[in-house]
DUF58 domain-containing protein
Amino acid sequence: MSLSPPSSLRARAEALAGPLPPLQAQAEQLARTLLLGGHGRRQAGMGDEFWQYRPAEPGDAGRSIDWRRSGRSDGHFVREKEWQSAQSVHLWADLSASMGFSSDKNHPTKQERAGLLTMALAILLMKGGERVALASLGTPPRIGALQLRRIAEGLRADPSPERAEYGAPDATSFLPRSRAVFLSDFLGPIEPVERAIGAAADRGITGLLYQILDPAEEAFPFQGRTIFTSMAGGLRHETLRASDLRDRYLDRLAERKAQLAHLAHQAGWRFATHHTNTPAQPALLWLYEGLEGAR
């Protein structure tokens, strides 16, 4: 067996002990402001009250099966406790090209804001004993520092020029009766969002739809000759009088918001819109308290 030279071991150790990814450090600071404001979890412990029996599913640990109850039937059953039934949260942050837009160098991109909120929310949830998963990683909800680091890495911008113009959530792998948060501009086709919400609702999953927009996308301040190009370059439109498009654009944006609100209402979810030129703390508070209400 060959041993690594001391210099190699030291380099690897320093890499492991290095500073937190910038996004995680920034999110830690944001989460701390919320906790200092007295918005931490108010319930104590993990809870011991029996809630229900449910059929065992692939992935359930053998120790979670209630063998006495299972012995009275042909199947295996898991004994769930009330608080434990909703302790897993799936987070989906849109990493598509559209989210890379910012109309002002002093404002974060939509993806940067979505990543910050996702990371800070994961930190808050884990501090409260919740298991968290980033949907794009395809891994189950977990807790701990390693999981936070995975999430931070998973939220890094995709440099690939082939990435999709718009993102699409997928809830098919989410745990039943868990909770979920979708963060996106939701400016692409609505059908994938409808399918994801429907799949989640069918599995007893509750959660939040959070639309993140740049202020220019809300106000449409364009005038005169303007060339509109999508972030990935697949869409392009030129006009000599951009102001003539304003009313039509605002009507379509209002229609999209109404569609999203209706989808959320039907599924028992909540919907809100956030703008990147506003502070992140109120947005994080809405998300955190919204998930508490989604139990």
